[in-house]
Amino acid sequence: MAFTIALAGKGGTGKTTTAALVVRALRELGAGSVLAVDADPNSTFHEALGVTVERSVGEITEEMLQSVDSTPGGMSKDAWMELNIHRYVVESREFDLLAMGRPEGAGCYCYANNLVRGCIDDLQRSYKYVVIDNEAGLEHLSRRTTRDVDALLIVSDAAVRGIRTAARLSELADELKIGVGSRYLVVNRAEEPLDPALVAAIEETGVPLLGTIPSDENVTRCDLIGDGLFSLPEDSPSLVAVRAMIASAIPALSEAKV
Ligand SMILES: Nc1ncnc2c1ncn2[C@@H]1O[C@H](COP(=O)(O)OP(=O)(O)OP(=O)(O)O)[C@@H](O)[C@H]1O
Ligand SMILES: [Mg+2]
Fold first, then answer.
1. Does ligand 1 have an atom closer than 6 angstroms to the CB of 15?
2. Which member of 34, 145, 210, 242 lies 3.0 to 4.6 Å from 21 by CB, making a disulfide possible if both were Cys?
3. pLDDT digits (tens, 9 = 90+) for 82-92
């Protein structure tokens, strides 16, 4: 069973950046096979990872629904869906990526969605780690069949209000009955030492701080020239920070060299 790491946080806090750094850190720490799941319909996860997506799960589902009752070769819809989801997983040397794309209309928990959820749960089982980049809410997580995540990283900006929003997201995860193994705060674009006001706000949340990520001009540069974060230098400050976080969050990796 894969160890699932999900990223959450309000808009623009650095979820996608952190998710891509987590994928890279896992690989550098010798974590084995990693599936990156892009669960944000407007996401840039593939860009942050430096790969292109041919087809999203949403597009595959649409095609299936449009074909009404005929699937090529008379295949069952389940088999057709499974085949296509496997076909459109982006494979790279370091990780695989599955883009969810746009889900079906709100409230539509129909046959097709169930089919998709089952296929994705099956797919995830064949990896050691799954890293899910989410949109600002927790919709994707609440739609999964396997709703448990082993580690929920809630990304916040370095501001008291941001920390409080992160705490509300943590409560929302409970309200949505998402089973969370461990949950952590990650403060992005933070300067150490943290301001006492920020430290106090973090303590108030009751959510442990996994670590902080500094503002990194190499990330800005990657963004500027459209490069993925796998091209960051190994000693880039944001990557060094995330590597240390992953080593401490995942006991099995903690003996690896950080
Ligand atoms: N530590 C950092 N140093 C420099 N730039 C950063 C850092 N973290 C994030 N950024 C930049 O900030 C912008 C927003 O980050 P990102 O896309 O990761 O946020 P997000 O939370 O995923 O946003 P959205 O809610 O839109 O999905 C990006 O341009 C990213 O390159
Ligand atoms: Mg994002």
1. yes
2. 242
3. 999 999 999 99
